[in-house]
Amino acid sequence: MKMALGFLTAILITCFAPVAYASDPSPLQDFCVAVNDSVAAVFVNGKICKNPNMVVANDFFFSGLNMPGNTSNPLGSRVTTVNVNQLPGLNTLGISLVRIDYASYGLNPPHTHPRATEILVVLEGTLYVGFVTSNPADPNQKNKLFAKYLNPGDAFVFPEGLIHFQFNVGHKNAIAFAGLSSQNPGVITIANAVFGSDPPINQAVLTKAFQVEKKVIDYLEAQFRWNIV
Ligand SMILES: *[C@@H]1O[C@H](CO)[C@@H](O)[C@H](O)[C@H]1NC(C)=O
Ligand SMILES: *[C@@H]1O[C@H](CO)[C@@H](O)[C@H](O)[C@H]1NC(C)=O
C-alpha cells in the first residue's frame, strides 16, 4: 500500500511537473553552503559551495528575528532580510525570509522582487496590502489592483515580479514575516529605481514617461536621493 501510494505520488508529480517551476535552480546535492573564495575566481549562478566536510550547524542558522527593525526613516518601515547573504546554508535552496516592521502609518513602498513570489503573514497590526498585474494584452483593460486589509494571522501572496506594497493603517506598530521563493529575491523599489538612479536617468525620458514638467521630475528626484536598504 505504501509503495502504491509512493508510485501514485510519483506519477502525480510527473503530471504536474510542466506547470510547476521554481525561480532558483533545484539543488543537485543535499546542500551547498555558500562560502567566500577570493582565490578561486569561479563565477557560478549563485554562490560557491563550502566543502561539505567543513559545514557546521551554524551555516544553517540565523538569530535575531525577535528584534524589531529600525523604522526611523522617511517611509516608517524596515525590512530585515534572511537570504543567502545572511544565511549561507540557503544557497541553491530557492527560499528565503524577511521580517518587516512598520511604524504607525509606515509604508513598504511599491516594489517588485524580480526572482521571487512572496507570501506574507501579519503578526501584529493591520496592513493594507496589494499588488498590480502586468500590462493586459487587451488595450481596453487596465493593470488590475488586488488589495486587502490584513489582520494578525492573515496571509497574502504577491506573485513573482509584480509590483506590490504594504501600508500600516493603524496607530500602532505592525509586524509581518514573509517567505520568498528565492535564495536571493532581489528588490526593485519603483521610486528609487526611477527617480534615484546613479547617475540619474536623462530628464527627457522621465518628463515624457510620466507626462509632467521638468520641475516635477526635479522635485521627485530630490526625494529619492537616499538609500532605501
Ligand atoms: C564575504 O566577503 C565579503 C568581502 O570580503 C564580506 O564582506 C562578507 O562578510 C563575507 N561573507 C561571509 C559569509 O563570510
Ligand atoms: C534608528 O535609525 C536612526 C536613523 O538612522 C538613528 O538615528 C537611530 O539611532 C537608530 N536607532 C537605533 C535604536 O538604532
UniProtKB/TrEMBL annotation:
Mn(2+) binds at H111, H113, E118, H164. Pfam families: Cupin_1. GO terms for cellular component: apoplast. Residues 1-22 form the signal peptide. Oxalate binds at N108, H113, E118. Its main location: secreted. Keywords: Apoplast, Disulfide bond, Manganese, Metal-binding, Secreted, Signal. Belongs to the germin family. Gene3D superfamilies: Jelly Rolls. Disulfide bonds join C32-C49. This is Germin-like protein. Residues 63-218 form the Cupin type-1 domain. InterPro entries: Cupin_1, Germin, Germin_Mn-BS, RmlC-like_jellyroll, RmlC_Cupin_sf.
